[in-house]
Design goal:
alpha+beta; Rossmann fold; Dna Ligase, domain 1; D-amino Acid Aminotransferase, Chain A, domain 1; 14 helices
Length: 445
């Protein structure tokens, strides 16, 4: 087992990883930018190393500084959390070259699944249902028009190296392709340093349902059931829940089997997710694989009593998994609390938190790194907390979430708490009647 793990991340996930490490008797090293010197993950680590100024490119994405921090503190493993370097094959490779275990997928696995068009080809060969589209990267607009005409409009153009909705354009008719292709290419190059694009049939009225999977170093893979991530704004998830109110036992069995097949096709090692689009007829299609821990992993943990960070560490240390599939025993919902003003087009709201009261009680969990007096820097993602509730039924979970949101007081900045309060009282949400387009017509009151 590892003696010391450097956590190459910040915020709530860094603190989350630290807690499991301490319970496992493993020392931790925090790395931080100058903007995060007062963050809790720095305060609670056994050791802390400043790795650069506020911009991510000069700190949390600075591979040489992070490796140097690991070497001077004698860390024998690095946990990347999510975001930043968590799905960077080069960083995974550099860790191996320096004799440091990267707690995540191998470079080959990241490369196979990180490039979306390559991943799609891999899934086709493995027999996993895929959305009709281009066979790999588009060569030019002429080819894009030809494929769109073949599979039928609407289509969606996506960045091969993308994520988070960037480099993505929906095209409803041929006259829109040139503009969509050019803008997606430009945005993809700016966001990912790679302007490769691919095309898929656009699935209307879909659900976004992902399966949590775990694979060990010996070829065993299991799934931990699904999460419904359909409540999104501009392709960014706002809320996740399990089980999905759209799921049936038969569909869960089919999708779980496909998720395991997908992970086995790349000999996957670690914790990850297979993400699917599910249409209104419950046909499902592979969308992408995330080769890391997910933001929304707590909802799965709460319904099956399973520490996913611990499992990541055990798998990385060579411990075999049981291979047992898990199914939701209760219902859990997670609301992402962002430092944004939902009444002002979700404008970021960095600044000092003057007062903070976190909700509590049975079945309520808050994952956060903020505290009264903490100043939220403007340099990073706006998510400042995750509020998770668990109950016997979805109806009880919704009631519990309403109560917890009402107790959650954050003064000094704007947050998305009012948005989630309205969601918990929305008739269509309560009835489970929603798709990924739900927020397009949602009016905040």
């Amino acid at each position: 087992m590892f003696k010391k793990i450097l956590i190459a991340n910040r915020g709530e996930i860094a603190l989350r990883i630290q807690r499991t490490c301490r319970e496992m008797g493993i020392k931790t090293v925090a790395v931080y930018s100058t903007a995060d010197r007062d963050s809790l993950h720095v305060r609670f680590a056994d050791e802390a190393v400043c790795i650069g100024p506020a911009p991510s490119a000069k700190s949390y994405l600075n591979m040489s500084s992070i490796i140097a921090a690991a070497e001077i503190t004698n860390a024998d493993a690095i946990h990347p959390g999510y975001g930043f370097l968590s799905e960077n094959a080069k960083f995974s490779e550099i860790c191996a070259l320096h004799g440091i275990k990267f707690i995540g997928a191998t470079p080959d696995q990241i490369n196979a699944m990180g490039n979306k068009s390559m991943a799609k080809e891999t899934m086709k060969k493995a027999g996993v249902p895929c959305v009709p589209g281009s066979d790999g990267v588009l060569n030019d607009v002429k080819e894009a028009k030809k494929i769109a005409g073949k599979i039928g409009y609407p289509v969606i153009i996506k960045a091969s190296a993308g994520g988070g909705g960037r480099g993505m354009r929906i095209v409803w008719e041929e006259s829109e392709i040139q503009k969509a292709y050019d803008s997606a290419k430009q945005e993809s190059a700016a966001a990912f340093g790679n302007d490769d694009l691919y095309m898929e049939k656009y699935i209307e009225e879909p659900r976004h349902i992902e399966f949590q999977i775990v694979g060990d170093q010996y070829g065993t893979v299991c799934h931990l059931s699904e999460r419904d991530c359909s409540i999104q704004r501009r392709h960014q998830k706002l809320l996740e829940e399990t089980p999905s109110p759209f799921m049936t036992p038969e569909l869960r069995d089919e999708m779980g089997t496909a998720a395991i097949k997908a992970a086995k096709s790349v000999n996957y090692e670690g914790v990850g997710t297979i993400e699917f689009l599910v249409d209104k007829h419950r046909n499902f299609y592979f969308m992408e694989m995330n080769t890391r821990i997910q933001v929304e992993h707590p909802v799965t943990e709460e319904v099956i009593n399973y520490d996913l960070i611990k499992e990541q560490i055990l798998v990385a240390a060579g411990v075999p998994i049981s291979g047992k599939n898990y199914f939701p025993e209760r219902c859990a919902i997670e609301c992402r609390i962002n430092a944004e003003d939902p009444y002002n087009d979700f404008r970021p709201s960095p600044g000092k938190i003057l007062n903070l009261h976190k909700p509590g009680g049975h079945g309520v969990r808050v994952d956060t790194h903020v505290y009264a007096g903490y100043t939220i820097p403007p340099n990073y993602d706006s998510m400042i907390a995750k509020l998770i509730v668990v109950a016997r039924t979805r109806e009880e979970a919704i009631v519990k979430m309403r109560r917890a949101l009402d107790e959650f007081i954050i003064e000094g900045i704007h947050t998305t708490i009012p948005l989630h309060m309205q969601l918990m009282n929305d008739k269509n949400f309560i009835e489970g009647n929603f798709t990924t387009a739900f927020m397009n017509t949602f009016e905040l009151k």
